[in-house]
Design a protein that fits this description.
22% strand; 12 helices; Dipeptide-binding Protein, domain 3; Dipeptide-binding Protein, domain 1; five-stranded antiparallel sheet; 535 residues; 3 domains; Peptide/Ni-bd; eight-stranded mixed sheet; Peptide/nickel transport system substrate-binding protein; D-Maltodextrin-Binding Protein, domain 2
Length: 535
């Protein structure tokens, strides 16, 4: 028996708006996705707060009609336009939902999974078979029709060698993908999976043209409301309205994404009317410059866990759990957040933000206790341990890195801070080669606990058999079991000191007062540019 649905009830994943728990200042970060995948990108990996409509926005875009260009300021330019082979948040932030679309997506207001390129879907009672009915009249930017053949091609391609990023593991659960006709796609899973449908809303669910994947790094071909037109590297990327879009045509005819390496330059661009929107404020203490009525300030929450990763590879200093525990006790998280991010953010204590159904406050697991940190170091015979803190040249990482250095040295560590150019040098040195002891990067992809801490080969180097078993049970069990097992997993990750969780980034945007459609919360991979308008 099949259950028909257009907003699958069993997958109302509770991406609820929690504006009362995490307000203020946003930043660019990156990485991860969801239970029992093997890895993820990081803003680390590419930059860009994986911004989304989140749960709520400041208005709804009027359909089409304007010849205006809207200019959006960001930090951390993509290294490529190909998110199938390049990790990081900046690429899906730009392209997902704007150039590429998915079969299903997350509703901006309700947080439910809703139809996108599939107008409806059915799920079998055993949760193994998903049947999607595709929308009619959808075309790619090259003029070809979107059919079930393209969907089969796209999903099978994720499981092939063509995709190289670790997030592809989210579709390992897929057994077969079939197209009984041009308008129907049938996906069969090897086992029930709570995360599968949600994964289809992320980059691994992006639909590609069978003839449009020859140059993904430079020429994306999608079905979305915008078309990629130009990339002036080191400066800006331009998208143009898709006049043949199958849905509501966007208000703005063009979107220019302007990239800045310096937080002050980003602010100055806004103050001098060189841009219309600051997508993620990189210097929260500078907000006073925008107060007083000339600008609107959007405050909300994100998925961006700022993680102090610890390389636990055998033979490394932080392979010793006592030394990792000492690190966690040595950090005063409130003081750190107050110092490096103007007190704007939320302390969480583990790898789950308050917008996840399995969130629990774990800030009490390792309270600030420098004497306990020194005692643990002595017990491990590791007084004066030298640590290389290798951080990306991103404002939050640079700002917080000096604070972490000071706190760890007070506890008895010998810390050297290296700033690595982002994305290229950081990706190569830390993310790929694992040539570091600690690093700081914000993991912003949604529901990324398993991606970041479920695979020992990922750069965080944590993924015990126990944690993998918990994540597997969370994925295959009932909804109630998913929540309880994910809570157990978050507790284990925290208690094992798999990393330290500095704070959760806030979503903080500044814009012209008449710009509407800005996301209050940034809890998805994409920044839905089609929602923007001028009111």
């Amino acid at each position: 028996m099949m259950q028909r649905m257009t907003t699958s009830p069993r997958t109302r994943l509770l991406l609820a708006t929690i504006t009362t728990t995490a307000l203020l200042a946003g930043c660019n970060a990156g990485a991860g996705s969801d239970p029992v995948s093997t890895g993820s990108g990081t803003q680390g990996a590419d930059g860009g707060t994986a911004t989304d409509d989140g749960a709520g926005s400041t208005g709804t875009a009027a359909p089409g009609g304007s010849d205006e260009t809207v200019r959006v300021g960001l930090v951390a330019e993509p290294a490529s336009l190909d998110f199938t082979t390049t990790d990081g948040a900046a690429i899906p932030q730009l392209l997902l939902d704007n150039v590429y679309e998915t079969l299903v997506t997350v509703d901006a207001d309700s947080g439910e999974i809703v139809s996108a390129l599939a107008e409806e879907w059915e799920v079998s009672e055993d949760r193994l078979t998903y049947t999607f009915t595709l929308k009619d009249g959808v075309t790619f930017s090259d003029g070809s029709e979107f059919t079930a053949e393209d969907a089969v091609f796209s999903l099978e391609r994720v499981k092939s060698d063509a995709w190289t990023i670790s997030l592809k593991a989210q579709l390992d659960v897929v057994d077969t993908v079939e197209a009984p006709d041009d308008g129907t796609v049938v996906i069969t899973l090897s086992q029930p999976s709570n995360r599968f449908l949600y994964a289809l809303t992320t980059r691994v669910g992006a639909m590609f043209d069978t003839e449009g994947v020859d140059d993904l790094a430079n020429t994306p071909v999608g079905t979305g409301p915008y078309l990629f037109t130009d990339w002036q590297r080191g400066s800006r990327i331009t998208l143009e309205r898709n006049e043949d879009y199958h849905g509501d045509v966007p208000y703005f005819s063009d979107v220019e994404m302007h990239y800045f390496r310096d937080a002050n330059a980003l602010n100055n661009a806004m103050l001098t009317d060189a841009i219309d929107v600051v997508s993620t404020v990189q210097a929260p203490e500078s907000l006073v410059e925008f107060e007083g009525g000339d600008y609107q300030i959007i405050e909300g929450t994100t998925n961006g866990e700022v993680v102090l990763s610890m390389n636990q590879t055998e033979g490394m200093p932080l392979a010793d759990p006592l030394v990792r525990q000492a690190v966690r006790h040595a950090i005063d998280h409130q003081a750190l957040m107050d110092t490096c991010w103007a007190g704007r953010g939320t302390l969480i204590g583990s790898m789950a933000p308050p917008t996840d159904p399995w969130y629990e406050d774990r800030t009490g697991d390792y309270p600030f206790d420098p004497e306990r940190a020194q005692s643990l170091l002595a017990e491990a015979g590791a007084e004066g341990t030298a640590l290389r803190l290798r951080i990306p040249t991103l404002p939050y990482a640079v700002s917080c890195g000096t604070v972490v250095e000071s706190m760890l040295e007070e506890a008895g560590f010998d810390v050297t801070v290296d700033e690595l150019e982002f994305p290229s040098a950081w990706l190569e040195t830390v993310f790929t080669s694992k040539d570091f002891d600690m690093s700081i990067v914000a993991h912003v992809e949604p529901r990324d606990m398993a991606s970041v801490f479920g695979n020992p080969d990922y750069y965080t180097t944590y993924g015990t058999e126990e944690i993998q078993a918990l994540l597997e049970e969370a994925d295959t069990g009932t909804e109630e079991e998913q929540v309880s097992k994910m809570q157990e997993a978050a507790a284990l990750i925290s208690e094992d000191a798999a990393a330290d969780f500095l704070f959760l980034l806030p979503n903080l945007m500044v814009a012209d007062p008449d710009i509407t459609g800005l996301p209050e919360n940034a809890i998805k991979e994409s920044f839905d540019l089609s929602s923007l308008a001028r009111g």
